Every structure is written in structure tokens, then in C-alpha cells.
């Protein structure tokens, strides 16, 4: 299937952020931006990504028999390598420019994409910081969290601890029951605001690698469908992995990259540049 010309045009048309939005992100390391995608574009990619997830999904264990992590979502990676239509969304200059502007860099390079589908009845996504998993040397990283439908609180939208990128404790925890308990306890005694809000259709959030976030359970009868794209600065250096997850990520998402060298592999193309 070809992506309709007007949808391709939308994905390549820039959204200009205000100085206030960039300042808000710089302080809180998360932001929600409304009306990034039109209803028609959202529905188009909802259908295409859903079909691709169905083809790639190998999880057939009943929800009640899975771990907390397994109950959180179906997780499929680098759909852009499998589907040229989905690639159009992942490679969107519209979204990548927002990412670069928020990181305050001139370039946004792809780290990887992933679909996160929380099934009807799916459990919580525990508190965590993404960059625990990433062998990346700086915090010039950002994730675009793209709900493929309006996402009410009952569906388990992403929640943020605003400004918690400044908190070091908990960064060493993988996502799971332990991270949920320990980080939640720590955040309770801090001044970081816990932001829990529904997402409108077409609204996208952006968050940095070290800000703590979670999601509630999906108590509806519908799948909560989300596509994510993770970006990094053009000059990101691969650091010596500090845990097994970072070792795995290195070889999976940056194959061939060398420690203490700039990450520039075929799997990590530049998606936006103002140069």
C-alpha cells in the first residue's frame, strides 16, 4: 500500500514550537503537544501498524500467566525495517523536528522505534527510566509517544514525574515490580509533580531518557495502541555498557558501532537536520 500524498505532505510539514514549550520541556523533561497528527493520518497509521503488530506478535501466553512486564504491553521493535508504510511515520520530519527542537540540537538521529500495545485488561507499566537500557553517553535523547487513538485514563496513558530526570536514585533499576515499588516510594517524598492526563487524538508526548514515567492498567475492552520513536543527538557516543541490557541494546539497535565512538550505523539514520 502507498501512503496517500496528502498524508506524506502532513508528515513532512513542520510544527513550530513556542519558546515557552521548549522551556517547559527543558525544566520538566516531558511535554505533550496537541494536534501533531490529523484524525485521518492517525486512523491510517492505526490500521497499518495494527496489521504489522499482528503479523509480528509471537506472544500467546494468557495475560494472567505473564510477569508484570509481560502484562504491561505487547512490544514490537523496528517496524520501519519490516513495513515501508510504517516507515513513513517513523521517518516523519514533522515529528523528528519537534524532537530536535526539544533536545535543543540541530539534528535528530534514530535510535529505534517500537510499538507498545496494551491489551484490554493489560496491567500497569511500572515506574522506570528508559535510559537504564541504553548504552548512550549523554542525555540528548527523547522518545515520541504516539497514541494511535484518543487515550482516556481508563486505557492507561503515559504518566510522568515532572522534572525527575534530576533524581539519580532508581536509575539502576530495570522495569518491573521492584522499580515500581522503589521509585514510587522515592517519588512520594519529592516535590516532582506526578502528571496523569488523558491524550486527545493526534496528541503526542515527548520525554527524555532519564525522566521517570509509568502507565496505568488498561481497564477498557479495547487495545491501547501506541507507536514510539526514540531519537538521539547526531553526535551521540556509544558508552561502555554498564549492564546486560545495555550490552543487548548495543548489538541490537547499533550493530557495528564502537565504544567511545559516534553512533552512525545503517540502523541509526538521521531523520531531521537543520544544517
Number of helical runs? 8
Label the CATH architecture: Sandwich
Q: What is the overall shape?
A: globular
Sketch the topology as an H/E string, one letter per element.
HHEHHEHHEEEEHEEEEHE
- What percent of residues adopt helix (DSSP H or I)? 25-40%
Biggest sheet record: 7 strands, antiparallel
Strand content: 15-25%
Cα end-to-end separation:
33 Å
CATH superfamily: q2cbj1_9rhob like domain
* Contiguous uncertain segments of 5+ residues: none
Number of domains: 1
As a whole number of angstroms, the C-alpha radius of gyration is 18 Å
Organism: Flavobacterium aurantiibacter
Pfam families: PhyH
GO molecular function, one term: iron ion binding
Protein name: Phytanoyl-CoA dioxygenase
Short description:
GO terms for molecular function: 2-oxoglutarate-dependent dioxygenase activity; iron ion binding. With 275 residues, the chain is an alpha+beta fold.
Describe the structure.
The chain is α+β, with helices and mostly antiparallel strands. It has one domain (5-10, 29-273): q2cbj1_9rhob like domain (Jelly Rolls, Sandwich), CATH 2.60.120. It has helices spanning 5-12, 19-28, 39-56, 68-72, 84-90, 93-103, 177-188, 244-253, and strands at 30-33, 74-77, 107-118, 125-128, 141-147, 158-161, 194-196, 204-208, 213-215, 224-232, 270-273. The strands form 2 sheets. Strands 1, 2, 3, 5, 8, 10 and 11 form a 7-stranded antiparallel β-sheet that branches. The chain has a 4-stranded antiparallel β-sheet with strand order 4-9-6-7. The protein is globular.
